[in-house]
Amino acid sequence: LLSEGKMTPKAVSIISKYKETCSDMTEVTNSSCSGDGGQPITKRKKLREALLRHCQELDEICRGAHWISPRYTLLPSASDGMYHASVRLRCLDFEMSITGDLRPTPHEARCSAASNMILELHKKAEQEQ
Questions:
Q1: Beta-carbon neighbour count of residue 51 at 10 Å?
Q2: Fewer CB within 10 Å, N- or C-terminus of the chain?
Q3: Which segments of 4-128 does DSSP mark as H helices, in order?
């Protein structure tokens, strides 16, 4: 958690763990589609899949650090039908609020905000080290 306004080693290690596994790539091995004798090829995940993982990842980070679950605010855009979300984390020693990008669905907007929050948590963890 936090001590004197700084992340404890446990919180930093949890965030670091998710930083290492935070990749938008997946390995797919299929000799019939690789064309080079079965060598693995790298296939990019769709944006929706990658963003969904960020929503789940932020929830796991909060659970692992015993923080309050993130709170999301979702606002529809009246002009173009898109959605804009922000996410807020409140802990004993710090509070952060981050916005996401405009997205076509509420779920994607929420996950965009979660993705931005994870990036900010990584930056905060690096500063604490």
A1: 23
A2: C
A3: 9-20, 31-34, 47-64, 106-128
**What single DSSP character describes residue 2?**
E
pTM of this structure: 0.62
* The predicted structure's pLDDT at residue 39: 46
Domains and CATH numbers, the chain: 9-16+45-128 (3.30.160.20)
* Spatial separation of the C-alpha atoms in residues 23 and 110, rounded to whole Å: 19
Q: Quick one: CA dihedral 41, 42, 46, 52, positive or negative?
A: positive
CA angle (100, 122, 26) in 5-degree steps:
80
Cα distance between residue 40 and residue 90, in whole Å: 43
Query: pLDDT by residue (tens digit) across 34-59?
Result: 344 444 444 455 655 665 688 889 99
List CB contacts of 13: < 8 A, sequence separation 6 or more: none
